[in-house]
Design goal:
about 475 residues; alpha/beta; Amidase signature (AS) enzymes; eleven-stranded mixed sheet; two-stranded antiparallel ribbon
Length: about 475
C-alpha cells in the first residue's frame, strides 16, 4: 500500500480500523522524506526518534478508541514556526544556535489534535524571497526538476507535501510564501484570511503592525485536507493582535452556479501564455457549471510591489537588515565584498532584498502614498468579491523557473503580494502540467470567505485532477512521463 499517496481522510479510516499502525505510517513517511531530502534538500531539522515514540503512543490511544482528528497523522512544519526544543533560526547565520522555547500556537493545536511532527522544512534566509537558500541549511530544489526553483519562502514545505513526504504541512505567507511554492511544486496550499490564524511564535517576527499581512496556513494533498487542517489551527490565541473572531464556514455549501468569477487582467506582470491558458480553462469550466465570469480590472494592481514594500516599511517593527545581522544592520557593500572573497555570510537574495529595502523608504511621501493606495485597494477588492465572488490569477508568471533565475527577474513575484495587503483568503490548486512542471492557479476570495476559495478549489480539483505526486527519487523521475526541460 502506497501510504504516501493517500489523503488524511483515507489514512484516518485505515488507522481507526487498525488496518495500519501509526508507527507504520510514520516510518513510511520518514523513508519517503529521506528519499526526497537526498534529491531536493527540503528538510531543516529531523525529529524522527521523537516522532516514532509519539506514533507508538498514538497506537495505544487508537486501540482504546481515543485520540483526536489527527492522532497518528504525520506532518512537517516550516522552520519559521516554533516547535519546542528544535532550532528556529529563520535561516539566518546570526541565529544558528537559536532554539524554540515554546510551541507556536499553531504547532500546539496540531499536537493537541494528535498530529505527529516528523521534521521542519527549509526556508530562505530571513524570509521575503521566492526561493529557499541560506547559510544554515543550504539550498532546496524542485522535486519535478532539481535544476529548478521550489519557490519560497515555504519552499521546503511545498516540496515535502508535493512529493508525499508528509500528509500535510504548515507554512507561512507574507507576500506569496505559501502560494508561490505550492504553485511551483504542485501542492495544494491555502493562505488564510488575515486575522483567521494566529501568527504568534513565528520567527522572524512580523511585529504587531504586520501581523495582519502574515498568514500561517496549510499545505495538503487535497482540498478536504486543507479545510480540515485550517479548522484545527484557526481562531484567537489571546496573544496575536491581528486575530479576529471569524466563523469558518463549510466549503461544501458553495454553489458554483451562483458564483461570480472575476477574471483579473493577466497582461501584467509578464504572465506567460501557459499560465493565462490555465486561468482561461478554469473560467470556462466554472462558466459551464453556471458561474458568471466577469472581466475585472483593479486600478493600481500594476503597483503591487511598491504597495507591499511601502506597507512593510511602514508597519515593520525592525528593518530586514537588522534581522539579518542578529540585531545590528548589515552593510550590503561589505557583505558583497565578503561574498567575492569566498567568505559569504549571507545569500545573494538576502542582499538584494536588503538593498531594495534601503531604497524603499528614501522618499517618505511616496511610502505614505503607496500605503494609502494599498488600503484603498483592500476596500475595493473585498467589496468587489463580496460573499459570492472569487478572483482567478496565476501564483507566478510561469511554471517553476530555473534555480536562482528569480534574482534576475524579481518583478515576477508580483502575482501574490496584493492579496496579503488586502488580507484575502487564497487557495492554490493544480490545473495542468507543462513540460513536466505543475501549472497552478490562485483562487482569491474576500477576507473571511475562506470557504468560498476552498469550495471553488474543490470544483477545480475534481474537474482537472488535483494533486499529482512529485517524484522523490531519480528513478521515480525517470519513470514519470515528462517533457524536455
Amino acid at each position: 500500500m502506497e501510504l504516501h499517496r493517500l489523503t488524511l481522510t483515507s489514512l484516518r479510516s485505515l488507522l481507526d480500523g487498525r488496518d495500519i499502525s501509526a508507527l507504520e505510517l510514520a516510518d513510511a513517511h520518514i523513508e519517503r522524506l529521506e528519499a526526497i531530502h537526498q534529491r531536493t534538500h527540503a528538510l531543516a531539522v529531523r525529529r524522527y526518534d521523537e516522532a516514532r515514540r509519539e506514533a507508538r503512543a498514538a497506537d495505544r490511544l487508537i486501540a482504546r478508541g481515543e485520540g483526536g482528528p489527527l492522532t497518528g497523522i504525520p506532518c512537517t512544519i516550516k522552520e519559521f514556526i516554533g516547535v519546542k526544543g528544535l532550532p528556529q533560526t529563520g535561516g539566518i547565520k546570526a541565529y544558528a544556535k537559536r532554539i524554540a522555547t515554546e510551541d507556536a500556537p499553531v504547532t500546539a493545536r496540531i499536537r493537541q489534535a494528535g498530529g505527529i511532527i516528523l521534521a521542519t522544512t527549509n526556508v530562505p534566509e530571513g524570509g521575503l524571497w521566492m526561493e529557499c537558500d541560506n547559510t544554515v541549511y543550504g539550498v532546496t530544489r524542485n522535486p519535478w526538476d532539481p535544476k529548478r526553483s521550489p519557490g519560497g519562502s515555504s519552499g521546503g514545505e511545498a516540496v515535502a507535501i508535493a512529493s508525499g513526504g508528509a500528509v500535510f504541512g504548515i507554512g507561512s505567507d507574507i507576500g506569496g510564501s505559501i502560494r508561490i511554492p505550492a504553485g511551483m511544486c504542485g501542492a495544494l496550499g491555502h493562505k488564510p484570511s488575515g486575522g483567521l490564524v494566529p501568527t504568534t511564535g513565528h520567527f522572524p517576527s512580523s511585529g504587531p503592525g504586520l501581523a495582519s499581512l502574515l498568514s500561517l496556513g496549510p499545505f495538503a494533498r487535497c482540498v478536504d485536507d486543507l479545510e480540515a487542517i485550517l479548522g484545527i489551527i484557526s481562531g484567537p490565541d489571546g496573544l496575536c493582535p491581528a486575530v479576529k473572531n471569524m466563523t469558518l464556514k463549510d466549503s461544501r455549501t458553495v454553489n458554483i452556479s451562483q458564483l461570480r468569477v472575476l477574471r483579473l487582467d493577466t497582461s501584467f506582470p509578464r504572465i506567460r501564455p501557459v499560465m493565462k491558458h490555465a486561468v482561461d480553462s478554469v473560467c470556462a469550466a466554472l462558466a459551464e457549471r453556471g458561474a458568471t465570469v466577469i472581466p475585472y480590472t483593479l486600478p493600481g494592481f500594476g503597483r503591487t510591489l511598491e504597495i507591499w514594500g511601502a506597507l512593510l516599511d511602514e508597519l515593520s517593527d525592525q528593518p530586514y537588515a537588522v534581522t539579518l545581522g542578529g540585531g545590528k544592520p548589515i552593510s550590503v557593500g561589505i557583505e558583497i565584498l565578503r561574498y567575492c572573497l569566498g567568505r559569504r555570510q549571507h545569500t545573494p537574495a538576502a542582499l538584494l532584498m536588503t538593498a531594495i529595502e534601503s531604497l524603499t523608504g528614501v522618499i517618505p511621501s511616496h511610502v505614505k502614498k503607496m500605503a494609502q493606495l494599498g488600503r484603498q485597494l483592500r476596500l475595493e477588492l473585498n467589496e468587489a468579491l463580496g460573499h459570492d465572488g472569487v478572483l482567478l490569477f496565476p501564483p507566478y508568471t510561469s511554471p517553476a523557473p530555473k534555480l536562482y533565475a528569480p534574482l534576475a527577474r524579481p518583478l515576477d513575484g508580483a502575482c501574490t503580494p496584493l492579496f496579503n495587503v488586502c488580507e484575502n483568503a487564497v487557495t492554490v490548486v493544480p490545473v495542468d502540467q507543462f513540460h513536466g512542471l505543475p501549472v497552478c492557479i490562485q483562487i482569491v476570495a474576500a477576507q473571511g470567505a475562506d470557504h468560498i476559495a476552498l469550495g471553488t478549489a474543490r470544483f477545480v480539483e475534481e474537474a482537472f485532477g488535483g494533486w499529482k505526486l512529485a517524484p522523490a527519487t531519480y528513478a521515480e523521475a525517470v519513470a514519470t512521463t515528462q517533457g524536455p526541460h
